[in-house]
Write a structure and sequence with these properties.
13 helices, globular, about 35% helix, Peroxisomal Thiolase, Chain A, domain 1
Length: about 400
């Protein structure tokens, strides 16, 4: 058998976001340079929150428009978004070879709203009025459980709790699952939801701002806080070909590591990216597109310097940058997973979405943040997500 037929490919994409529901609508909004900020919801705890955020209300999201209303009415906000995004990744099909599939979700905070509501009920009304159904929705793997139940998945349903890179971590774990088990396919994604207390805390820690954000600018604005859910369907190339599925791109490999003690972020990024590319026998000068988790601030500059140290952006050919958090906000598990979705669509269509008006033009090396849609022949894309605590997650994707 042709060795390439055992490659892992992306055959489905699903999104539930403030910019829209469904990957094609959201992709078109990106190509048009749109962003989804709206007024922040009023804080029930009167927390000091920024005025702007990216929330699902901006897209008039209603899970019952996409899934059985009798099922979704009992779900939390994050579980509803995850179910709709997962259905998008399987084209809405409830009948299929789901028995040996697996579902993996990356999240930073899980169902914060239900969690706070459960303990608020405990505090105000005592144990007798605290609903056990409400508590079950507050656990981080509730969303994966609902997806497995709705589709009839009997394989693993797992949730990974991490930071800004949690969605990319889930994709890496799904890739490992397909390579190491007889799993038929993997639904992998990331999600986080808007919580007013988290909004206040993240703002105070200067992780989010008013937006829209100025990526790769140390003194620029920070992205606003966001929410949403995204999923990718991963499967082996031979099985995808037999089923005549749409193949967006190949998922070649990924790596998740942390910076070493006293190691600067740029050096750590260079080390992780170099190791990942070496493992795949890919030259750094072959990377055409970098989909970054940049959101504004010093961390963006360190990430970019690390990529240059790894050899990306050092040849005569331009390397295009895309920073979708500017459009959809810092949504942790969702926004990092969405980076992989953007890379998949870019490789499929040969298009790089433009940045917003706040995009800087004086970038080092051969990096280019386009101000309008670029149509070009893309071979390899690198997705990178870093965290303030030294987490670094990298994916390498290639044209189908």
């Amino acid at each position: 058998m042709n060795k390439n037929m055992n490659s892992i490919v992306v055959t489905g994409l699903g999104v539930a976001s403030p910019l829209g529901v469904g990957v094609e609508d959201v992709w078109q909004a990106l190509l048009e340079g749109k962003e989804s900020r709206s007024d922040s919801p009023k804080s029930q705890f009167k927390a000091p929150i920024p005025q702007k955020a990216h929330t699902l209300e901006a897209s008039e999201f209603d899970a019952s428009d996409h899934a059985d209303p009798r099922f979704v009415r009992r779900l939390s906000r994050i579980s509803s978004a995850c179910l709709v995004a997962a259905l998008g990744a399987v084209d809405g099909e409830r009948e299929g070879d789901y028995e040996n599939a697996c579902v993996m979700l990356g999240t930073a905070f899980g169902s914060g709203v239900y969690h706070f509501e459960f303990y608020e009920d405990l505090f105000e009304r005592g144990l007798s009025d605290a609903s056990p159904l409400l508590f079950s929705e507050s656990v981080v793997n509730a969303a994966t459980g609902h997806i497995c139940h709705y589709l009839g998945v009997q394989g693993p349903g797992l949730a990974f709790v991490a930071g800004e890179d949690s969605g990319v971590q889930a994709v890496i774990h799904g890739l490992d699952q397909l390579r190491g088990t007889d799993c038929t396919f993997a639904l992998v994604g990331g999600a986080d939801e808007y919580v007013d207390l988290l909004h206040a805390s993240l703002s105070q820690r200067e992780i989010v701002g008013e937006g829209p954000g100025t990526p790769f600018s140390e003194d620029g604005n920070l992205c606003a806080y966001g929410e949403g859910a995204g999923f990718l369907r991963l499967e082996r190339l031979n099985e995808a070909a037999q089923a005549e599925r749409t193949i967006y791109c190949k998922l070649l490999g990924g790596l998740n590591l942390r910076s070493r003690p006293d190691e600067k972020l740029d050096s750590a990024v260079a080390r992780v990216v170099t190791q990942c590319l070496n493992d795949l026998s890919i030259s750094p000068q072959d990377i055409d597109l970098v989909v970054s988790g940049a959101r504004g601030g010093k961390q963006d500059i360190e990430e970019l310097n690390g990529l240059i140290e790894a050899g990306i952006g050092t040849s005569d050919q331009p390397v295009y940058l895309c920073a979708p958090k500017v459009n959809l906000g810092e949504a942790f598990g969702f926004s990092s997973c969405f980076q992989a979705i953007v890379a998949a669509k870019s490789l499929e269509e040969g298009k790089v979405p433009p940045g917003l008006d706040s995009t800087p033009s004086d970038l080092p090396g051969q990096f280019v943040l386009p101000t309008e849609v670029v149509e070009t022949d893309l071979k390899f894309a690198l997705v990178i997500s870093t965290t303030p605590t030294g987490g670094i997650s990298v994916l390498v994707m290639g044209e189908a």
